[in-house]
């Protein structure tokens, strides 16, 4: 079985729910304390054994490329100032992986980045992630997924339990009884008709079968190309697709102001240097 060494990261979204902060800055570059969201995503991928990271971008995402490139002037200034720890920190960002940038082309939708990157993916499995979804866990969730894939070779998507009253905001998976095998995925079902409270999120292991389906299927809801439509067709054709829960951690979305702030605080609370002070400050404001 081929080892998974490549990841496709969807970062072509506009971040309109976080305007005006995202007017001149990609949402993926917004900081979680002192690291941009996208760096935390990349660190998770690298900790999972990913070597080649394909970021599917658009015209206004150059700051992402700059972040993962060498900054010779900054590196030289840090070296001259004797700030060795900071220098190594900055050097590590550029050397974590091989970074490839592809402009998104095609219809709107979260299936399009896969097609945009498809020429860079041979007949091999790969990880597909949203660039603004974080998974905060003791062991990289990418590693958790790849370890499972190495055992059984099945495609999969990350899932997490959400409150029943919130199921109408997510894609909800229907599992075959007594298993983690996906029978169906229902996009934003009514609370009464939801088959479970397991919401899917932006962590997947896919392969060429999914790419082929994406090339064939018609546009779906809102005239967009949806990755879940390809997964549903794969399952209905007899393919096995698994739901994977996070072990010792949780999925954190950052796509709107409230959840972005929640994610920032969760990371801040775990920091040895500022965690206790932040908690004390929060308590003092209540």
Can you describe this structure?
With 286 residues, the protein is an alpha/beta fold. The chain has one domain (6-272): Spore Coat Polysaccharide Biosynthesis Protein SpsA, Chain A, CATH 3.90.550.10. Helix content is 35%, strand content 24%. It is built from 10 helices and 13 strands. The strands form 4 sheets. The chain has a 7-stranded mixed beta sheet, with helices on both faces. A two-stranded antiparallel sheet has the order 2-3. A two-stranded antiparallel sheet has the order 7-13. Helix 3 packs antiparallel against helix 4 (84-95) and helix 9 (257-269) crosses helix 10. The longest helix has 13 residues, at 257-269. The protein is globular, with a radius of gyration of 19 Å. The model has no long low-confidence stretch (mean pLDDT 94).
Provide a brief overview of the structure:
The chain has 286 residues and is α/β, with parallel strands linked by helices.
